[in-house]
Amino acid sequence: MKNPSPEYIDTIISAEIPDINVDHDAYNAVKKSMVHGSCGQANVSSPCMQQGKCTKFFPKKFNDTTTIGEDGYISACEASWRIFQFGINYRYPAVERLPFHLPNEHTVIFEESRCIENVLNMPGIEKTKFTELLETNRKHEDARSLTYAEFPQHWVWNSKCKLWTKQKKGNAVGRIYFAHPSSGERFYMRMLLNFLKGSTSFECIRTINGVTYPTFKAACYALGLLDDDREWIDCLSEAAVWATGNELRNLFVTMLVFCQVSNVPELWKSHSTILSKEMLYLQRKRFQVPNLHLTQEQIESYALVEIEGIMQKLGKSLKDIDGMPQPDSSLTGHGGTGKTFLWNTITSKLRSESLIVLPVATSRLASLLLPNGRTTHSRFRIPLDITAESTCEIKHGTQLDKLLQKTSLIIWDEAPMTHKYRFEALDKTLRDLLSTRYDNSRSKPFGRLIVVCGGDFRQILPVIPQGERADIIDASLNPSYLWLHFEIFELKQNMRLHREGIEEIEAEKIASFDRWLLQIGDGSLYENPAQELIRILPELCSPTTENPMEGIVGEVYPSLLENYKDIAYIKERAILTPKNETVHELNDFLMNMIPGEGRTYLSSDSVCKVYVALSRVTGIEGLIIVNADTEVKDQALIKNIVYK
């Protein structure tokens, strides 16, 4: 059975702690191996403890009946394997990671408090695993018959002495660090290291058949490791027949970032005309000058601006590609639209002054509604598995670092939904990165960069798996050390519920609904605070029927069978519900009414909050609320959870 009920489980499994007086051995076995030991404040050093909390979510509430969690099941054979403590995995042979680097570009790790001059003067700082490989090849003739990846099979790296010594026993295989094709010379150097043997210097790696080439890429060409770009040329030429200019430019960026294009400047030169497709029309529309005339060079510059914008969204830049023409500096301005007048006004004002604004949002959907918006994880490289010690994965000198150095403002939408550790990760990262821009950035929030956060704390707060009310509140932005530095501005008038040109009576209805909605969000409208129940306005209640689903469907979708194929009929109707399980019930009911084969699209459950659902409503007209909570006898009462 795929989803057994608690009653069915009880017929198969009956778990209880043996009586110590009847079966002493069984009691000790259960106590030792099948009962979660003390943790939390009683034992903070327990293996299950991380960041002061039990990773298994103990202690748990006592349940009178069997419950099924959301963590899934394991098979009987896997359960037995783990009970007998058999090995779960093993690794053989050992894998030796083999880093490599360009001349004088190796990584040096040191404590932040140390002086840079002292670090640079440390004995042996110039030695790395890769440079010592070259040195070993110079000193030992037998080492020159091996590639870099084959080296660990016969030589052992001593990290303490920074020395390769001959292997006496054991076995190991080498794995050279990965290099992305867009990393330039590092990528071509790695390609050469997979084939060349006995290299004694960086120049030796670039020497093919006695000829020393100026770049590793040129050496790859000489060795025959690189083909021409015929496949990319054919791809662009074929796409030009049917694709729009924007689609072609996105395709071109995809090739640059994710594919191995050998000669990017030549590919651009031969296809600049088709990649500039529609640019003249777009500029005429942008400047509202129907008879605007541009030279071919100007059109190509505008196309390069568009391409640069697409690449920056992927954390790349045309500046990273040798020989690639750059857009004119006078063409760096960006137009923007947003989901709110406020974001649009702030962004447009600053960008009109040639300042850089980075609009981001917690969710992908919200980011699409911001002017040139991105998700926070995508823009700032915030780790998905966040902890109090986490920082963003942004290194000094990268393209993203250079962008942040020039940024004037960050707009962060849907901030209340975000875990405070993500704000703190960005804060710590900006304090470090902007130390080259501001003298006292390390002591200022977000490194002195202005960050504007927007959102509604009445809506969903950070989701904490199996977390209690206190855990959710603690994870929100308010308890963070950053909250003291925020200046709060409150927008009190709900513009979506106040439209121009409406009659006074209708305006009062909307205002009344607005006040009622805010009271729900504030948690001040409870009829029964202990059970978190609120009373729905009488005019919004669906009439009580024996079948609530049939009643609400009949109210919202009259004559459904005659009109379900009418797109306009479907678009002007919707049923909102805070819980996905109610959505599933409604969908099943509707799908059973409509003839034909149905499809199911799955999503995850969300917190039940009446305010979240109603905050999407733009007017009271036509609004009907159906209560699907079978535990509440009064259908005018509905549960609403508010965390403060």
Structural account:
With 644 residues, this protein is α/β, with parallel strands linked by helices. The chain has 4 domains: 94-223, no CATH class; 230-331, no CATH class; 341-485, Rossmann fold (3-Layer(aba) Sandwich); 518-639, no CATH class. The protein has 25 helices and 15 strands. Strands 10-9-11-12 form a 4-stranded parallel beta sheet. The chain has a 3-stranded antiparallel beta sheet with strand order 13-14-15, with no helix packed on it. Strands 1-2 form a two-stranded antiparallel sheet. A hairpin with a 2-residue loop joins β7 (207-208) and β8 (211-212). It is globular. The two termini are 42 Å apart. Residues 328-339 and 604-608 have low confidence and may be disordered.
Keywords, please?
single chain; Rossmann fold; alpha/beta; 644 residues; three-stranded antiparallel sheet; 25 helices; 4 domains; four-stranded parallel sheet; 36% helix
Strand segment tally = 15
Decide which structural class fits the backbone: alpha/beta
Distance between the first and last residues' Cα:
42 Å
Shape: globular
Beta percentage is 5-15%
* CATH topology value of the largest domain: Rossmann fold
* Average pLDDT: 80
CATH C-level category of the largest domain: Alpha Beta
**Radius of gyration using CA atoms only:** 32 Å
CATH architecture of the largest domain: 3-Layer(aba) Sandwich
Order of adjacent strands in the largest pleated sheet: 10-9-11-12
- How many domains? 4
Helical proportion, percent range: 25-40%
Number of DSSP helices? 25
- Uncertain spans: 328-339, 604-608
Main beta sheet, described? 4 strands, parallel
